[in-house]
Amino acid sequence: METHKRVFFNTLAQYIKAIINTCLSLYTVRLILSALGQSDYGIYSLIAGTIAMLGFVINALVITTQRHLSYSQGGCDVSLQRKYFSNSLLLHIIVGIAIALTLLLFQDYLCSVFFNIPANRRYAASIVYIVMLTIMTLSFLSSPFKAAIIAHENIIYISVIEVLDGVLKLLLAVALLQLQTDKLVVYTIILLFIYLFELLSYALY
Questions:
Q1: For a tag site, which of 31, 84, 106, 147 has the least CB within 10 Å?
Q2: Is 117 helix (H, G, I), strand (E, B) or coil?
């Protein structure tokens, strides 16, 4: 594909993705709040929000990896691309696991004291905390693969996967309304599989 056409279609894909995911997110949040209730949704938001603060680290790693991969690709040096990718993947694995294990050490303190969660929901909060740490680790692992796709300028594929991610979360919210079990725990566990799907989509590509 010619450069100007690739830029046009990639930009168009990003705008369409942003519009669709914004609409899906607005409705999904409404359904999740209705399904979980104010208390459980607050627990989820508190834990997820605390861990999500590390998102800037993930974005920085993606940008840095993509810059090196783009540079080596511009030089048509396949062996250098492989070296950059392998080293960045190893680095992401080490950093992701190290951060997850460090935060795991503070689990009891955060769930029992700092977050001020009611005693009857602390067990569920602990499960949510562990699942969200796992999701964060998966996000770290997906970063090199996502950076490699960006370096090859296939933004359309990433946009499609992210739209599917939004659709799956909406379907999860709808299904959650029908469940009679501990919805907070079920929600986060199924959310983990959605992030696993995203990782596999990038990695298999």
A1: 106
A2: coil
Which one, of 183, 197, 201, lies nearest residue 39 by Cα? 183
131, 143, 114: which is closest to 55 by C-alpha?
143
Helix (H) or strand (E) holding 130: helix 122-151
Q: Are 41 and 32 spatial neighbours (Cβ–Cβ below 8 Å)?
A: yes
3-class state of residue 115 by DSSP: coil
Q: Is 10 left (phi over 0), alpha (psi -120 to 50) or beta?
A: alpha
> Do 147 and 65 form a contact (C-beta atoms < 8 A)?
yes
CA dihedral (110, 53, 203, 18) positive or negative: positive
In this predicted model, what pLDDT tens digit does every residue of 158-168 receive, in sequence order? 889 999 999 99
Per-residue pLDDT band for 113 (boundaries 50, 70, 90) equals confident
Give tens-digit pLDDT for 60-91.
777 777 777 777 766 666 777 788 888 888 88
Q: Are 112 and 122 in contact (CB under 8 A)?
A: yes
On whether the CB atoms of residues 88 and 144 are closer than 8 A, the answer is yes
Kindly state the helix (H) or strand (E) to which residue 30 belongs, with its residue range.
helix 3-52
Provide the whole-model pTM. 0.83
